TrEMBL record:
Name of the protein in its database record: PIN domain-containing protein
Length: 60
């Protein structure tokens, strides 16, 4: 199954705080390692390979 390269890119219209940047960095690493999909507010996180919903990303 092929996934679009830009599937997880989201445009942010506001300045990012330090916490936001850390969260984005973590989500980027997770999406690379685990092929996650998530929406603008980091809700509805799913593993693309299995479709399994992720309740807490710390436990991946």
């Amino acid at each position: 199954m092929d996934f679009p390269i830009n599937a997880n890119l989201v445009k942010y219209e506001r300045k990012l705080s330090f916490t936001d940047c850390n969260t984005l960095s973590s989500m980027d690493k997770l999406s690379t390692q685990f092929l996650l999909s998530f929406d603008r507010d980091f809700d509805n996180i799913n593993l693309l390979k299995s479709g399994k919903r992720v309740i807490n990303i710390r436990y991946l």
